[in-house]
Amino acid sequence: MVLELDQVTKRFGSFTAVNQLSLTIPEKEMFGFLGANGAGKTTTFRMILGLLDASEGKISWDGKPINYKTSSMIGYLPEERGLYPKLKVREQIVYLARLRGMQKQAALKELDYWLNRFKVKEYADKKIEELSKGNQQKIQFIAAVIHKPKLLILDEPFSGLDPVNVEQLKEAVVELKNTGTTIVFASHRMEHVEEMCELICIMHKGSPVVHGSLKEIKRSFGKKNLVIHADFDTTFLMEYPGVTRAKVTAEGIHLQITSEQAAQDILKDIVGKGFIRKFVLEEPSLNDIFIEKVGASYE
Amino acid sequence: MNNFFIILLHTYMSKLKTKSFLVTTILTVAIMLALTNMTNIIDFFNKGGGADKIAVIDGTGKLYEPLKEQIKIINKELILEKYDGNEAAARKDVAEGKYKGLLELKWNGDNLPAASYKAMSIADSAVPADLQAALQQMKTAMASTQINIAPEQLEKLYAPVEFEKSALEKDAKTEEELNQARGLVYVLLFIIYFAVIMYANMIAMEVATEKSSRVMEIMISSVSPIKQMFAKILGIGLLSLTQLAALLLVGYFSIKQNLETMQGGFFEFFGFGNIAGSTIAYAVIFFLLGYFLYATMAAFLGSLVSRIEDVQQMITPMTLLVVAGFMMAMFGLNQPEAPFVKYTSFIPFFSPMLMFLRVGMLNIPFWEVALSIGILVATIAFLAVFGARVYRGGVLMYGKSNSFKDIKKALQLSKKG
């Protein structure tokens, strides 16, 4: 059950939204899909779901194309949230679940489970428009997963949620992954992707700029972060050999360095200059990689 | 169950339960009942007043009895009573409401009947008119006796001229039939007009609501947009048939019930007395075709807008087409044979109303009806294919612009590759 995108290109007139995208998403993996706004994420999802036809290339799942015959195995949480405002939660979920091939009774049972799990049982008979935005989002998440999809596409699943609800939903997503759901996960929140995904792809203007396992990407990124908090003036380090980026903070300086050797050189140099409260060599964060690769400031 | 039927049923049931649908259905049925029971309703209000009593002071002593006989023939509700008292007392009784009016009979100079009528108000002209008519007949009879004219001669004098109108075309409708057909066609045209506008609007709103609430994204990932579009059109079509069926059934039984009270007046004018089954059948056929034509258009126009507020603006050109068709049909009611009615009845956007008008009022060759229906069906098929393509791309488009340029954009989105 591998989701495979092979040299996929989508053009709208003269504009190329997705360019030569090749991805392999193995079964039971959580795949992080990153990109600035307009990078082509939603277009890619729409092509995966068969809503748009690719101009070139092929998309297959388990060797077969994804279409409406497979829709009962696919769950989708779109970025733009929305449900029927006038329908009650129960009617709504049952309707959407039946469209994904579920029986009514099974849908009702599964809905009960999820409402209990998200502690929103009392909303079953409320109209969507009466719910808060966060609760609407939980209901929509339920709509995306109620039919136990094999492939789940989550476009910004946690945006607009408070930290408690983010935790609840994250737990649910991880659990789904552990029970064997393949998940494609798009987000702007690097820390979420960093925490949950082993495989990622960063899109930029329709083309994949980084693609592969997160660990591998971090290792091959080469650069590391060095955080120094000291009592003396550290600004001279900005010009130090091996430093590619620097940011002065209230307590010291954050540096991006090309190798561990640079860190050792810096340490030798600053020892004896004064009191050093903190000297930490860190792995690059996904945020760093994203900023570096996409070149835009993000978060 | 198949997704198509799930959406169809969902659309049908959720619309059926809405307040606006229930209210419009109950209201139209109530209006239907009121119209078909008009005679009963008029009777009901008249019963309160009872029969009108007229006090008669007969100054001649000879006219009262024959007048009473004559009035019986003209108006049973009018009761004459001989008044034994002077005029002042009678006036007082009229003022107190014991009598509707006071009639004084006397001879004129030529020994012929003359009368004066006094009532509190002479706004109700029916009573004095009946009295006058009865007296007129008596006067004519008496005067003719005075000048020695035999009753047969009199009859000859007053007999109406023989004047027969007939259409040379075979099976052409007679004048009377034409009037009756006109009433029925008029009412059915109204129903077609309102129903097409109302339900096409409903479709556009339904699609736009799904789009603006963004539930569309989920819907199109589970069911193909084309399936959705047709399930919706059929679901709301079913809804319209439900309403129409309720209306026609109530109307039919109510008319049957009241058939004997329907002679003359109001009902005859509308031609409800003998409803032609074929006219009703054509009305249903042309309503359905008109509905599908405009519903398909409304669905893909609705798929182009992002906000509900923009729906009206988007479908206005379509609504104007329906209105134009209706106006032409209204004009055509008086001149069903006008050439422009004939030609426009083959233009698909107008034919649901204009061809129905012609088929309901004239005897036109069957091939004309068949051709018109054929053109209509072909147009619907074309719009369905074209509309489905626009719909497929349209539902994915969000943005503030909503012009007809968007149709091109939507087609581009739905294009293969």
Automatic annotation (TrEMBL), chain A:
It comes from Mesobacillus subterraneus. It comes from the Bacteria. This is Sodium ABC transporter ATP-binding protein. InterPro entries: AAA+_ATPase, ABC_transporter-like_ATP-bd, ABC_transporter-like_CS, ABC_transporter_ATP-binding, DrrA1/2-like_C, P-loop_NTPase. The keyword Lipid metabolism does not apply. Keywords: ATP-binding, Nucleotide-binding, Transport. One of its GO terms (molecular function) is ATP hydrolysis activity. PANTHER family: ABC TRANSPORTER ATP-BINDING PROTEIN, ABC TRANSPORTER ATP-BINDING PROTEIN NATA. Belongs to the ABC transporter superfamily. Residues 3-230 form the ABC transporter domain.
From TrEMBL, chain B:
It is found in: Cell membrane. This is ABC-2 type transporter transmembrane domain-containing protein. The lineage of its organism: Bacteria, Bacillati, Bacillota, Bacilli, Bacillales. The keyword Cell inner membrane does not apply. Residues 19-388 form the ABC-2 type transporter transmembrane domain. It comes from Mesobacillus subterraneus. It is a multi-pass membrane protein. It comes from the Bacteria. InterPro entries: ABC-2_transporter_component, ABC2_TM. GO terms for cellular component: plasma membrane. One of its GO terms (molecular function) is ABC-type transporter activity. The chain crosses the membrane at residues 21-42, 184-208, 229-255, 275-302, 314-334, 340-357, 369-391. Keywords: Cell membrane, Membrane, Transmembrane, Transmembrane helix.
